[in-house]
Amino acid sequence: MGIRFEGIIPAIVFPLLLTMVLFLGPLMQLAIDCPWTFTDGVKVALDPCFWSLCLSDMRWLRNRVVAPLTGSWCSGLHAALLVPCAGPATAIFTCPLFLRTHFHHVIELLRFRQGTLAGIFLSAVFQFSYTAVFGAYTAFIFLRTGHLMGPVLCHSFCNYMGFPAISTALEHPQRLTILSSYLLGVVLFLFFLFPFTDPSFYGFPTPVCTLTSSTSSLCFS
Known about the structure:
mainly alpha
């Protein structure tokens, strides 16, 4: 079920680092535009008042804790159950469609009057599209690592970052640096995708689900 102590440190570090590499462009833009220094960020992160405010905010808890935990767990378990029947690739890309609809945000946006009905609906459709891709990514991590921690942290991080603001990057005074970071992030992500999720790092002599081109790939308990 993805809850175990073997390989817990790599499960915390490598999937999150891999996801941060993918977001290299947005992180670069954030670093350029952020008025805070690194020391300021550390002070805020260590401030109990900051965490008290976060933990008392129901929307923060939903987006950073509850949704990553429940969504990643259900998506990973669906994938593990589907692998023996449909194969790894089909399982990974199918299971997010059952969970990551995000159409409940339509009700929330309407409640707070944040746009027209048509605009809100189109936004929900767009969100569904890219979160389905992200759901496949977290299911892949779950199957490769056998840990729940990696998908949860990646989900929480992506909820914090949001969808990359590419249009803003194109208009940025330092757009060449930022766009180069976008491209470099994607290239490095693809390069490190399999090495960083190598099952041997995570305490399994045999991978949870052997994701190879072989048609005999199975899920091991």
